[in-house]
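Example 5.3 — AP-5 complex subunit zeta-1
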Amino acid sequence: MGGEDGDGDRNWDFHLRTLSNSTRDSNLANNPASDPSLLHSVTPSLPPSLSVKRLHELCKEENSEDLIARVYPQINKLFQRSVSLLSQSTNSYGLLLLAILQFFLDFGEVVLHDADPSLRTFLRSCLSREFADPVVAEATLDFLNVNKKKILTSFPTLLPQFFPLLLKLIAWNGEKLEKSFMKIFPGLMMSPGSFLPLFPSLVDLPILVVALQKVERSSGSLIGSSIASIQKSTAPEMLLALMDEAYTGSTIADGGADSESEDSSAIDAADPFFLEFLKDENDGLPERHWTSPAMVATLQATINTPQSDRLKQMLKMTPRLLDVYFAISLRDVNDSLICALIPLLMSRNDTMFPDKIFSYEVRKRLLEFMLAAFQRSPNFIALLKKPIMDRLGEAYDSPAKTELALQLCWAIGEHGGGGGSHKDAARELFESLELLLYENLSTSRLGLRESALRSGGESSRKSSQSRLLCFVVTAIAKLASYHRELLPRARVSLGKVARSRISDVRVWRRARDYLGLMNEPAICLSVLGPSRPSDGNMQKPGTVNWSEGGTKMIAHIPFYILGEQEGPPFHDFSFSDIFPRR
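Solution (predicted structure tokens):
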């Protein structure tokens, strides 16, 4: 044992001298990352027999607070010196700093070192320059996963603050790091301050890839460049100067003979829209102007050119990230944040990267989450009546907005406009549905007279509008069945549609069927009522209050309309066979 202790002391002395020499030697002090003993100690493929990593292992093996206290000053000095030289060196410091950070996390309580400033310094000063390095990126995710529990517990705001930087890391490195990134992804949402800003950043991940590629084309490798140093400025001259200094070292006016095209110019990358994408830290909900000239030009160029492998990977990954985001939201996030998220979903439904498959997959998830949120909290419909009515007013602006309006109509009817306690909101929503209905009747948008003149595309558009109006008619009938004070107005509205032979046959036939159903109050609420009635006196859908049949039902109940069949009922029983005689 004594011999082993002696060997251990000699190992300690050797590694401490190595560290001490690295901080004193003028050459190594100016570039600690160039010291082979330091680099080897944190490179997994080489024997960890020297310096930082070996000292860390020895501290764990010996479990001696005295030895930890002896090595800490040298480790801390090395960290500070390395950070101070990041902007002056082309060497990679990521692996060395991660090894030091692991020492701080494991032994911080022993030496009273708060690791939070060190972690933030690493992310802000080092990872912002080296996120594009695949080795550093993978090591960073491994580090975060190994220490995930401690980071989320002791430093809960760290990942939420730097989620834009971590999104840049995964956007550039792609699917090969997806599994590791998914493990830390829930931690990005832990803070209320990151939950809402994270959503548009996820939807825009393909555009982030495009922005990073533009920077690489115009300024060279992303490794070693601090994109975050470019700050927004209200003065265009200052903005261009910052771009100049950060990327090219020359003036924008010099042009650049090797510029590939106008699309890859530094001027485009300096657009405030792209600066918003390229930031490293969360500073609140982003304001992104999709009418930006640079944005319009870039998207158009993207459509007209082959997609890069990075972009293809991100188009596939983004829907999977949204799946996790929405699942965690419904499980763990409070109602106030989810209610605030829904208008963002509505605004982004028609604004996203122009790839057909990507757009379909993302919109599908947005609408499914929105309906699930309404199902969980029907009162959201009343609270969000203004944005909902605005979207109904945009129903015919584009196919995506038509589909959104259709889903909103279904939610309004299905959940009674927010519930029985929200009669004013239900009335306003009802009026919006009425307006949408009357606009179509008055302008004859679905007029059969035009059918002979329709082209294929026009026919498809009319069919889509007919589908929407069927949902509008259904929502009006369901809303009036829940809020019975609206029944007279609903009968007038549906009566106009039923009598209008200029409308698509599916629309006026459905209106006629609902009018007939409204004349049967005992089954109307069962068929058209909300799925989760808040009023205890209301039955659930699919059930009929048979005890009231003697007074509220009549002999000619048109069951056949529920199957949209023409002609008389097909049953051969009478109600005297069903209801007991008194």
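Remark. The radius of gyration is 32 Å.
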